[in-house]
Amino acid sequence: MVLNLFRLMAVLLIAALVALSSAPGVAHKDHNEMAEANEQVEAPGVNTPGAMHEMMEEHAEEMEEQRPKTFAERLMRWIGRTHPFAVHFPIALFPVALVALILARRRGETIELIRALIIVAGAASVIAAILGWFTGGFVLVDTDAVQLWHRWIGTGLAVIGGAVAVWALRRRSSVNSRGMVIALSTITLILLVQGWLGAALVHGMDHMNF
Fold it and tell me: With 50 as the cut, is the pLDDT of residue 27 above it?
């Protein structure tokens, strides 16, 4: 189980690095799309009151068509809206567990509290990933490359986080092992990439520009 877990983490870490390295290309594509949209808005006749009013009506009609109609659709949309604050739990707990474990191993202190942190963080990562599927919709492929990477890296993190939590729950001695330090370190690195992708979805690809 441990070997398979490390293999899965290695694959996910590589995928996260590829996602981050491919971000500039996606940003360039988005920039071109925005430029084309601006050219359409600045085209002759578009800035006239009549044309602007027509564009606003078309936008309102599109929004109305996308609005959930049934109770089940509204419920799924509402559940999905809890994803942004649910992700804060694994984002916070996994790095805290890592730092606490490193300090505890150096000082020879008890690790029972760290074990609880790992278990809660793993459960929280699974819940956050499920809520993410409600937010992004239950599709396997997204047209937006950033959302596609965010969806599947998040799903992979849930699998790894859940596996690490089960490992800590079933084997108390695993918490104070070098393997657990490696696992938590890898999860923390992937969380950094995943957090960047999530912010890019909300605030744009240039949200971290200096």
Answer: no
